[in-house]
Amino acid sequence: MNDYLFKRVLTCVFIADTHCMNVSAGPTQKMNLFQSVTSALDNTLAGDPTAVIFGEDVAFGGVFRCTVGLRDKYGKDRVFNTPLCEQGIVGFGIGAAAAGATAIAEIQFADYIYPAFDQIVNEAAKYRYRSGNMFDCGKLTIRAPWGCVGHGSIYHSQCPEAFFTHCPGIKIVVPRGPVQAKGLLLSCIADQNPCIFFEPKILYRAAVEQVPTEAYQIPLSQAEVLQEGSDLTLVAWGTQVHVLKEVAAMAQEKLGVSCELIDLRTILPWDTETVCKSVVKTGRLLISHEAPVTGGFAAEISSTVQEECFLNLEAPISRVCGYDTPFPHIFEPFYIPDKWKCFEAVKRMINY
């Protein structure tokens, strides 16, 4: 791991425990993010006899070890491998969910979700609508490792959430840490709509928190204000939340600028009320994500805020995102919207 990404990981660890104390579900255990995902899946399999987990290599634990031990504990009929066919994995999940099972499908990397795009967009998302609510596949949850990891390059570092936000009928969620991951994943599994749960892969082992061992849920479509401020609103999700946390500290220390930091958490349907309320207060908005800037979800947030808060804005809304190129390998540090790019955007907005 290069020095740039090591610093990103340190930042992620640094802000871990501070905003999780509102979750109360009995005894806790120190877990990193992939262990918290395993715990959520374990709780689900234990409490729901219809629950099944399937995907490429999940039987032995998966590439990132999120399903370790679950096949031995619950049997090969409930945790099992599939062929290397993402379209088939999601298609099977739709059928299983429609038949009444709680179907949890794993796509090994978010970059490989595209072969399943038709099944997700034309089948899963529309299943309830096309049958007039006679049938649905709302018990389907699709998990996928997501985002940059330092050496993933073109096919292992993408953030494809915006492709699916143009599609009514599904929910899209990205957690920032272990406590959030477990609670939000359990909410996705319990939700009566198909959900896509993107897991920031660089955080799998980096972020560590005290996570409740029993099941608990964190509401979907509710953004969380991690830090209150008066001068500028920062919005992100997943790994980028940690980057903006550091930017907020830099802005306070070097510029005397008070930033309000919001973790969007659910990308679709997103919490417009929390974001707009913050922008009305601060008058400025910066949105950051790793995905390319053109057509990224920051554009949707920007458009909505411009429509709802136009008279409150003190500066143009700023988007600090990835470039409109395939994800690079050795040039990844130049591609990622790091704290320095975001801090420069803050300075421009304050001086506008």
Automatic annotation (TrEMBL):
Gene Ontology CC, one term: mitochondrial matrix
Required cofactor names: thiamine diphosphate
Record-linked SMART domains: Transket_pyr
Protein EC: 1.2.4.4
Keywords: Oxidoreductase
Catalytic activity: N(6)-[(R)-lipoyl]-L-lysyl-[protein] + 3-methyl-2-oxobutanoate + H(+) = N(6)-[(R)-S(8)-2-methylpropanoyldihydrolipoyl]-L-lysyl-[protein] + CO2
The protein's enzyme class: oxidoreductase
Keyword Cytoplasm: no
Presence of keyword Oxidoreductase: yes
SUPFAM superfamilies in the record: Thiamin diphosphate-binding fold (THDP-binding) (SSF52518), TK C-terminal domain-like (SSF52922)
InterPro entries associated with the record: THDP-binding (IPR029061), Transketo_C/PFOR_II (IPR009014), Transketolase-like_Pyr-bd (IPR005475), Transketolase_C (IPR033248)
Pfam families recorded: Transket_pyr (PF02779), Transketolase_C (PF02780)
Span of domain Transketolase-like pyrimidine-binding: 31-206
GO terms, molecular function: branched-chain 2-oxo acid dehydrogenase activity
GO biological process: branched-chain amino acid catabolic process; response to nutrient
Top-level taxon: Eukaryota
This protein's name: 3-methyl-2-oxobutanoate dehydrogenase (2-methylpropanoyl-transferring)
